[in-house]
Write a structure and sequence with these properties.
Layout lengths: L2 H21 L5 H39 L6 H24 L4 H6 L1 H10 L1 H16 L7 E4 L7 E8 L3 E6 L4 E5 H6 L2 E3 L7 E10 L4 H15 L5 E2 L5 E7 L3 E10 L6 H18 L17 H16 L1 H4 L4 H10 L1 E5 L4 E3 L7 E7 L2 E6 L5 E7 L4 E2 L1 H6 L6 E4 L3 E7 H10 L3 H17 L8 H15 L6
Antiparallel strand pairs: 1-2, 1-5, 2-3, 3-4, 6-9, 7-9, 8-9, 10-17, 11-16, 12-15, 12-17, 13-14, 13-16
Helix pairs in contact: 1-2, 2-3, 8-9, 10-12, 12-14, 15-16
């Protein structure tokens, strides 16, 4: 863009200085003067184009795009080019020909009215585009939802702003051209401003007979866990509300936050739906159906409690890979369900172990003390996760602090039920140590090189034999 005006400027300069000599014998002095004036005007216009090219290269391209990381709309660049060229042309004609634009403007008034009527929509788009750029209500790279009276709302990323239209790249990869007048005359939702998480919502419907507080805790626990994933926002915290109630169902809305510049809203909702579906399937929560009761209805809360204990043990890797069905039933009869209010600390780092917990509903935060003394969150656990098993099985002090992030419903397993199992089946100790060794290896693989598994197994087995020595004599 710069080299063409430079070349044209050199040619015009050479032509202007050599015109008089070349045309001296073939043209009158008046004709030579007219040619000189034309070349001078052309020189001024080409100089203006060269100046515009320098602005485009050093300002729009090198500073605005490379240093600021923003793409300038073509409308702004083109308007500046037109203004520079018109200004240069006006100065050159006034300088060389004493040309006044007053008469031209007066004579073209009627023509302008006719063109204005014929090009009404084009002019609306032009001034709408100019308004958008001057106000800065959105820019290239922003995610917008554009509403219209005649079509469905369009959601996409702004990839271009021209004289007449704004271009949106939709989630499916297609490009939508939206006339600028549509943007300025209809509501537009800018998801990229301000730069914080935007709220989304998904709906889950559950059988009305299931206690709503327990369903809320299950869903909220998973939502908090998902909020720690890339692209999702941990704050504001997710929430679960009852949106509607029918004769057969309760409709729960799970509100959560995500960054639209980091993750597509449809992908964020998919992640949340998948996590909530896993909870529904894991707990076998009944979906709403129209039912006619022909017998005395069961106490669903009691049935769920009994099933929860057995399912909670089956879903815990420590027990599912070690115990058979009879041993699971024995252990289930010796365990109990405990509930914790939000903010209650289940265990503190460094405290002696007295039990382990399998999370049935809700979410728990795992923190460790950093070098500065401030607690640092390292994980969030929810339905089906287990905490405290390493300390309970080896007698080691707690390695982290566990706090209820929501109302928490857990299955507590103490040392006594494990001792009852080991009395009847001492060989279980070897199986427990193998599972714990694999778990330790998995937890440490991101922070250090994996230790030799047999060494982990030997150390764990030795600690466990010492801790349960009372029943293994």
């Amino acid at each position: 863009m710069i080299f063409i005006p430079i070349l044209a400027l050199i040619v015009l300069l050479a032509a202007r200085f050599w015109t008089a000599n070349l045309l001296a014998g073939n043209m009158s002095a008046k004709g030579i003067l007219a040619v000189d004036h034309v070349l001078t005007v052309a020189l001024v216009v080409v100089g203006a184009l060269l100046f515009d090219g320098l602005i485009r290269f050093f300002y729009w391209h090198r500073y605005w795009r490379r240093r600021r990381g923003r793409e300038t709309p073509a409308l702004i660049r083109d308007l500046l080019t037109i203004a520079i060229v018109l200004c240069a042309l006006s100065v050159a004609l006034w300088w060389q020909e004493d040309f006044s634009f007053t008469g031209l403007i007066t004579a073209s008034g009627a023509t302008a009215i006719i063109l204005g009527i014929a090009l009404q929509t084009v002019i609306q788009d032009l001034f709408s585009g100019l308004s958008v750029n001057l106000e800065g209500s959105y820019a290239i790279g922003d995610w917008l939802t554009v509403y219209s009276e005649h079509t469905d709302p369009a959601y996409g990323r702004v990839t271009g702003i021209t004289w007449r239209a704004t271009f949106l790249t939709l989630e499916n990869g297609r490009q939508l051209m939206v006339p600028n007048r549509t943007v300025t005359s209809n509501p537009v939702l800018n998801h990229s401003r301000p730069k914080n998480g935007k709220r989304y919502s998904v709906e889950v419907s559950i059988d009305i007979r299931v206690p709503s507080d327990r369903v809320t805790d299950m869903l909220l626990g998973e939502a908090i866990k998902v909020s720690r994933m890339p692209g999702m926002a941990a704050l504001p915290a997710p929430e679960v509300i009852i949106h509607n109630v029918s004769s057969d169902a309760i409709f729960y809305h799970v509100h959560f936050y995500a960054y639209p510049d980091a993750i597509m809203p449809s992908n964020a909702k998919s992640l949340m739906y998948k996590a909530l579906l896993d909870v529904v399937q894991q707990h076998a929560l009944p979906l709403p159906v129209t039912q006619i009761e022909m017998v005395e209805p069961r106490n669903l809360s009691v049935v769920m409690d009994q099933e929860e204990v057995r399912d909670g043990l089956r879903n815990a890797a420590l027990f599912s890979h070690v115990l058979d069905e009879q041993q699971l039933i024995l252990l289930a009869n010796l365990c109990k369900i405990r509930q914790f209010a939000q903010g209650i600390v289940l265990m503190r780092q460094g405290d002696p172990a007295s039990s382990m917990f399998i999370i049935l509903e809700g979410a728990a935060g795992i923190t460790i003390d950093s070098a500065s003394g401030e607690p640092r969150e390292v994980a969030v656990l929810a339905t089906g996760d287990i905490v405290g098993e390493m300390s309970l099985m080896t007698g080691s002090p707690r390695s982290a602090t566990v706090t209820a992030l929501t109302r928490l419903r857990t299955l507590e397993v103490t040392k006594e039920p494990v001792e009852e199992l080991l009395k009847k089946s001492p060989e279980l100790l070897q199986r427990f140590s193998q599972v714990l060794a694999e778990r330790m290896e998995h937890l440490n693989e991101h922070t250090r090189r994996a230790m030799v598994k047999t060494q982990d197994l030997t150390d764990l087995l030795s600690k466990m034999k010492t801790f349960f020595s009372r029943v293994l004599r």
